[in-house]
Design brief:
The protein is an alpha+beta fold and 300 residues long. Helix content is 45%, strand content 15%.
Length: 300
């Protein structure tokens, strides 16, 4: 997902720096692709992976259940959309009353975006039919009229929009400017055993974010990197569409971690029933790395 675009950039930039210095990958980052949140969650819980881009409410829930994980950085801002068919009569959000709407998961922040839009119109989730579905399946489901709309992160909105059969009804860029969903999460033993490694990763992610938002040429380079088999393994034209329509559909330059934003996210998650109750900020958050961070200059 394009929410995670800072990670392929960070991985390649680190490998490039290592090669230029003639050193081995002692601080290399290895990218692993997973097909769904349950698999990532399981791998992080069992320690098969030590760091991952995770849904923020999921991390809060894991930390509350005493799984030793901490959020150390954001990965992006914005990047979620509500899509409808190009030929559908739906022009206002209220027009979705009674319709079937797909979401990735009830833990997904996309679902919180949908709930926020419902509340703004004086509606509740009971006023629509919610279907949980893997984001890659959503464009085809909309095309086949199996659903009337879907709410998800990019590039799965752009894929249908670029193909011509879907249009954006609402996007977080316009409705929830400081929206965050994917956050860089690490296991606490990695922090205890190798703080420099975690700091280096955060520095590269923040550097990648600033680099991505500097100029379109950098975004074009990122598209080529991320589309490859080693990373997203997706059509570069779809990722490029996300980067250009409009250019701030997803942003990466402002990765500050702001307590009030996470607390709003938690309150929305509690109201949605995805988190049972309040989780102390310090339980799931380690701000020390972003506070000490020096965004790495990306040599790409």
């Amino acid at each position: 997902m394009t929410c995670n675009l800072t990670l392929p950039v960070a991985c390649v930039a680190r490998a490039t720096s290592n090669a230029a210095m003639g050193v081995g990958p002692q601080f290399g980052f290895e990218y692993s692709k997973y097909n769904g949140w349950p698999e990532i969650k399981e791998s992080l819980m069992t320690g098969r992976i030590q760091a991952a881009y995770m849904l923020a409410p999921l991390v809060m829930d894991l930390a509350d259940k005493k799984i030793p994980v901490k959020i150390v950085s954001l990965g992006h801002r914005s990047g979620a959309v509500i899509m409808v068919r190009t030929d559908s009569p739906h022009q206002r959000f209220k027009d979705l009353a009674g319709k079937r709407i797909a979401i990735p998961s009830r833990f997904a922040v996309d679902f919180l975006f949908l709930r926020k839009m419902l509340a703004r119109e004086g509606m509740t989730p009971k006023d629509i039919q919610i279907v949980e579905m893997a984001p890659p399946d959503m464009p085809a489901a909309l095309y086949a009229k199996a659903v009337d709309a879907y709410c998800t992160g990019e590039p799965f909105g752009a894929a249908a929009q670029r193909a011509g059969y879907a249009r954006v009804l609402r996007m977080t860029r316009d409705e929830w400017r400081n929206y965050i969903c994917c956050v860089l999460t690490v296991r606490e033993e990695l922090i205890a055993e190798n703080r420099p490694m975690v700091q280096d990763l955060v520095n590269y992610v923040l550097g990648a974010g600033q680099w991505l938002d500097q100029k379109q040429d950098n975004r074009n380079k990122a598209v080529t990197i991320a589309a490859g088999r080693k990373f997203f393994n997706q059509d570069p034209n779809i990722i490029r569409f996300v980067m250009e329509n409009p250019v701030d559909r997803v942003t990466y330059g402002d990765l500050r971690m702001i307590r009030s934003e996470f607390e709003e996210l938690m309150q929305l998650s509690i109201e949605a029933g995805t988190i049972k109750g309040p989780v102390a900020y310090e339980k799931y958050m380690d701000e020390s790395f972003t506070k000490a961070a020096r965004a790495t200059v990306i040599p790409l």
